[in-house]
Specification:
Blueprint lengths: L1 E10 L2 E11 L2 E6 L6 H8 L7 E6 L2 E2 L5 H6 E4 L11 H11 L4 H14 L15 H12 L6 E5 L7 H14 L4 E6 L2 H4 L5 E6 L2 E6 L1 H8 L5 H19 L2
Bound molecules: adenosine-5'-diphosphate (ADP) and magnesium ion.
InterPro entries: AAA+_ATPase, ABC_transporter-like_ATP-bd, ABC_transporter-like_CS, P-loop_NTPase
EC number: 3.6.3.-
Keywords: ATP-binding, Hydrolase, Nucleotide-binding, Transport
Length: 247
């Protein structure tokens, strides 16, 4: 179980997250909010990459900072940014990540085969990642995130910049991951998560507006038009603000 207790994050005068308290058990969660809502900041705090200004993150009841490598070994994370590993082949990149995760040499090759097959990149495993399409790079990021069968998987906008076909493909890969684990997927695109998430967390200006099943959110926020309409009602103004700022 993952618990966020009154997480606040301030960047100088900007409050990116304010008093976020959440408890997540097994299942797929959609973290939904417009650009600038604080999704990446929240994920960076969950993964331990960013230190919160206030509050605590606990895994199985213990602060993640006190767990170090033990926490990293149950965690899989796909960051929002692509292009960092363009000079690696898929196999080299995955063995590098597997080593960082503490997967033994003996287990590595089997595990790499498994994740390549999972994201359907076996055929291009010896090509440089820089030659991949955006969708393939994104599947590569998912592949490294699932190395070692982590209990907690955090995917930051895994469908950003993809065409509709690849979006569906990524969505189906995420669905296939569900089971005995926690999966948190951020997006500002409703269709990415509407059919796969058991619960949606609505994040607006650093605060959790609501969290519930799609069905309940529609009831509560009057979305006869589904989650898309809930989104428009909850975030309508912010979306316009964000685009006005050019974020
Ligand atoms: P999202 O992922 O939902 O688009 P972010 O978590 O990236 O949102 O950003 C939330 C807010 O925090 C934004 O206003 C953003 O400009 C600000 N922010 C994020 N990272 C930094 C940083 N390193 N320094 C200053 N401000 C930041
Ligand atoms: Mg983001």
């Amino acid at each position: 179980m993952l618990e966020l207790r009154e997480i606040t994050k301030k960047y100088k005068d900007k409050t990116a997250l304010e008093q976020v308290t959440l408890t997540l058990g097994k299942g797929i969660y959609g973290l939904l909010g417009p650009n600038g809502a604080g999704k990446s900041t929240l994920m960076n705090i969950i993964t331990g990459n960013v230190r919160p200004t206030g509050g605590a993150v606990c895994w199985q009841g213990k602060e993640i900072r006190a767990q170090g490598a033990a926490y990293r070994s149950i965690l899989g994370y796909a960051p929002q940014q692509q292009g960092l590993y363009d000079n690696f082949t898929a196999v080299r990149f995955l063995s590098y990540m597997a080593t960082l995760k503490g997967i033994s040499r003996k287990e590595q090759s089997g595990e790499i085969e498994r994740v390549l097959d999972f994201v359907n990149l076996t055929d291009v495993r010896n090509r440089f990642i820089g030659t991949y399409s955006g969708g393939m790079k994104q599947r590569m990021l998912i592949a490294q995130a699932v190395l070692g069968k982590p209990e907690l998987i955090v995917l930051d906008e895994p469908t950003a910049g993809l065409d509709p076909k690849e979006r569906v493909r990524i969505r189906e890969r995420i669905r296939a991951l569900s089971g005995e684990r926690i999966i948190l997927v951020s997006t500002h695109v409703v269709s990415d998560i509407e059919t796969i998430a058991g619960e949606i967390i609505l994040l607006r200006e650093g605060k959790v507006v609501d969290r519930d099943s799609v069905e309940k959110l529609c009831e509560k926020h009057g979305g006869a038009g589904g989650l898309e309409e809930v989104y428009m009602r909850v975030f309508g103004e912010e979306e316009r603000d964000a685009s006005a700022d050019g974020i």
